[in-house]
Design brief:
heterodimer, A: 96 residues, alpha+beta, Ubiquitin-like (UB roll), 2 helices, B: 317 residues, mainly alpha, two-stranded antiparallel ribbon, 13 helices, 2% strand, binds fe (ii) ion
Chain lengths: 96, 317
């Protein structure tokens, strides 16, 4: 008998209510998109936890490497002018 | 710059960094460096946990067609479906450590991977379904609540999800017991009999006493475990005794008594010889549980093959 593949792995993202971000839930196994959506629903939304689901093949996900996290995210630190608190507002200015 | 750390070989530096992180209570993600022993420990624990959820469906499945009402049957089916879901959360979390689901199933079938010993006992009467939900899920909850803060993030996330679903499991079991204790003398006897058979195996679910617990030093240092077996067992006993008394059930332990000084119950000696006998394959249902899983797995192979074939066909279109 051929190797038992247990089908492909898919990552599941779910929106908990309309308008919310899609957040990662975990993964499921399925052989195609339709089965992936059904299995994701059965596995991660048995109590109406979601209003919408995305499924993505696990091996299609590109992830940043934890070893390079410092280098990768560092540039954000020296651009503090991206933060609203960087700016001095004239005393007495309202609603800004 | 020459520091004490940078003179260490790479592996030791990584280990030092890892231990610093876990000591500070930081979460470990799948792509983070981790010691092989940490990975191995987690694969063993998480796959055993996943197998337990799945094998645990069997004693309950035994009563689906004989549930005493449509309501009871719907509840039992929903609970069993949740347990299957718990197994899937845990398999998928374990897969992030680099083991495939097929390997995990092979290890279950070969006996290399274990599942919780409690499921080697039979569910003889309807009251057993009550006792399983109330005591077995009750004990599992105490353990799983503690594991919500385990250091491996995918495991911790799976535990948070599982704990949200578990309280219904315990409550439906306790409701069955409470209902039977308000019934006929025969029903009360049946409930007490289930209590007598499930109480001790439930206490054994927490594993050996701290004094003879293997694998635990690393597990604590790396924050895989946060509470000892005995701490968790004590917590379960202290919660459960009052629930038993309230509905008129007797805890089958003549040495059980409240200890004012420790603000907890003292309890009798656990029969570890029985535990070892059952875990080594001589329990009432070991053979049945495993051979059922193997049979169903093999009989379902054609479904997976058909799904693969359908995928190929779609690709070629
Ligand atoms: Fe469960
Ligand atoms: Fe449960």
């Amino acid at each position: 008998m051929a190797a038992d593949t247990q089908l492909d792995s898919w990552e599941v993202f779910m929106q908990s209510r309309p308008g919310a971000n899609f957040t990662h839930q975990g993964s499921i196994h399925a052989s195609d998109k339709k089965m992936a959506l059904q299995n994701a629903r059965d596995t991660y939304s048995r109590r109406s936890e979601g209003t919408s689901i995305w499924v993505v093949p696990t091996n299609e996900i590109a992830a940043s490497s934890p070893d390079e996290a410092d280098m990768f995210f560092d540039p954000a630190n020296d651009k503090i002018y991206r933060m609203p608190t960087f700016y001095t507002m004239p005393e007495g200015a309202k609603n800004i | 710059m020459e520091t004490a750390q940078s003179t260490l070989p790479k592996e030791e530096m990584l280990l030092a960094k890892f231990e610093e992180k876990t000591a500070a209570g930081e979460a470990i993600e799948p792509r983070d460096w981790m010691p092989e022993a940490y990975r191995k420990h987690l694969i063993r624990q998480m796959s055993q946990h996943a197998h337990s959820e799945v094998i645990g469906m069997q004693p309950e499945g035994n009563w689906v067609t004989r549930a005493p009402s449509l309501r009871a049957r719907q509840i039992l089916l929903a609970k069993i479906q949740d347990e299957g879901g718990h197994g899937l959360y845990l398999y998928s979390a374990a897969e992030t450590l680099g083991i495939t689901r097929d390997e995990m199933i092979q290890q279950l079938h070969s006996g290399k991977a274990k599942y919780s010993n409690i499921f080697n006992y039979p569910s003889l009467t309807w009251a057993d379904i009550g006792a399983i939900g109330w005591l077995v899920d009750g004990a599992a909850i105490v353990n799983q609540v503690s594991l919500q803060r385990t250091s491996y993030a995918p495991y911790s996330r799976a535990m948070v999800r599982i704990c949200k679903e578990e309280s219904f499991h315990q409550r439906q079991g306790y409701e069955i017991m409470a209902t039977m204790m308000k019934g006929t003398a025969e029903q009360r006897e049946m409930a007490q009999d289930a209590m007598n058979r499930w109480w001790w195996p439930s206490l054994m679910m927490f594993g050996p006493h701290d004094t003879d617990s293997p694998h635990s030093a690393d597990a604590f240092r790396w924050k895989i475990k946060r509470h000892t077996n005995d701490e968790l067992r004590q917590k379960f006993i202290d919660k459960t005794v009052q629930q038993a008394e309230l509905i008129g059930l007797t805890v089958p332990d003549k040495d059980l008594r409240w200890n004012e000084a420790k603000q907890g119950y003292d309890y009798g000696k656990i029969d570890w010889e029985e535990f070892n006998r059952v875990i080594n394959g001589h329990g009432p249902c070991n053979k049945q549980r495993l051979s059922h899983h193997i049979r169903v797995h093999n009989e379902g192979a054609w479904v997976r093959e058909a799904a693969e074939a359908y995928k190929q066909k779609q690709k070629n279109n």
